[in-house]
Amino acid sequence: MTSKEEEKTDLIILNYNNYNYFFLFFLKNSKDDNVIFKKILKKNIQNYLHKKWGSISLIETTNKFILIPEKLYLKKDDKKYLSFVTKNDENKIKKNLSNKIMCLYTSNNDFKLKQKNIKNFHIFSLLITNQPKNNISNLQTNIFLGGDKIIISIHKNNELYYYNHFNNKNDYLKYLIILYKEYGLNQSKNLIAITSIYDQDAIAMKEKLKKYFKKISINKMNENNNIKNIFNLKN
Predict the structure, then answer these.
(1) At CA 209, angle to CA 204 and CA 215, rounded to 5?
(2) So what's the pLDDT on residue 14?
(3) Cα gap 200→196, rounded to integer Å
(4) Between β-strands 55-60 and 35-41, what pairing exists: parallel, antiparallel or unpaired?
(5) For the chain, which terminal residue's Cβ has fewer other Cβ atoms within 10 angstroms, N or C?
(6) What is the pLDDT of residue 6?
(7) According to the model, what pLDDT value does residue 224 have?
(8) pTM
(9) For the chain, where are the alpha helices, taking DSSP H only?
């Protein structure tokens, strides 16, 4: 990619793994809107950050977050809200509002970005904003796989019932069965929709789940253009 092309390109950084590496998404602003998708080691990320990009957006996957309905949210209580999940200073608090839900979080960012006006998002705000808006009469479970994270949400139409994410080494199968019982879901009738950065990870998860759940679909990121849908940061 030439320097002129980079100046017209948005750099989107997904905090994919908190310890080893980040994923970089390059979304071109040209008419073809092609996506270049690369995994970059954390130690090499500065080789990309010193360049002049059209814009830079950082997507956080930190567990240090809390969700508050907009109607109940009070700005003066930001530090109090986050005290339940972290002891970080109030000045480090960031926030996104999505679907009438305020997400407060602290950044995992420990590298310096020289470019000004950097957008910062929690993965929650992107996945919830871009969740399927089908007119479904039953609760649906969405699973997003990315690096060391499994992100689970349960919704009906555009209404969120549940959201959480955790390390993929956890026993997510047992966790899903408990969630189904808690929300009165039917393992034969309620849909599980899986989206993954790597299609093979989604296929492997489906194979593991299909012994216990009957309705499972896979949203292939490349085929359905979900990279651009999920990480559409223009608004």
Answers:
(1) 110
(2) 84
(3) 8
(4) unpaired
(5) C
(6) 57
(7) 45
(8) 0.81
(9) 3-7, 46-49, 78-82, 123-129, 172-182, 199-209, 221-224, 226-230
Start-to-end CA distance of the chain, whole Å, equals 26
CATH fourth-level superfamily of 1-129: Protein of unknown function DUF3822, N-terminal domain (3.30.420.250)
| CATH code given to domain 130-230 | 3.30.420.260
Which 3 state secondary structure label does DSSP give 65?
strand
Residue 156: other Cβ atoms inside 10 A: 14
Query: Number of C-alpha atoms within 13 angstroms, CB side, residue 82?
Result: 24
Chain region(s) in the chain for CATH 3.30.420.260: 130-230
List the structure tokens of 203: 């296929």
Query: In degrees to the nearest 10, what's the CA dihedral of 40, 218, 189, 162?
Result: 30
Mean pLDDT by 10-residue block, N- to C-terminus, for the chain (235 residues)? Answer: 63 75 70 70 82 83 88 88 74 83 81 71 83 68 86 86 82 90 94 87 92 90 57 57
172-210: burial string, b at 16+ Cβ within 10 Å, e else = beeebbebbeeeebeeeebbbbbbbbebebbeebbeebe
Instruction: Using CB atoms within 10 Å of the CB of residue 93, give its burial: 0 to 12 exposed, 13 to 18 middle, 19+ buried.
Output: middle
Q: For CA atoms 234, 46, 53, 8, give the dihedral sign.
A: negative
Bridging pattern class, strands 192-196 and 216-220 = parallel
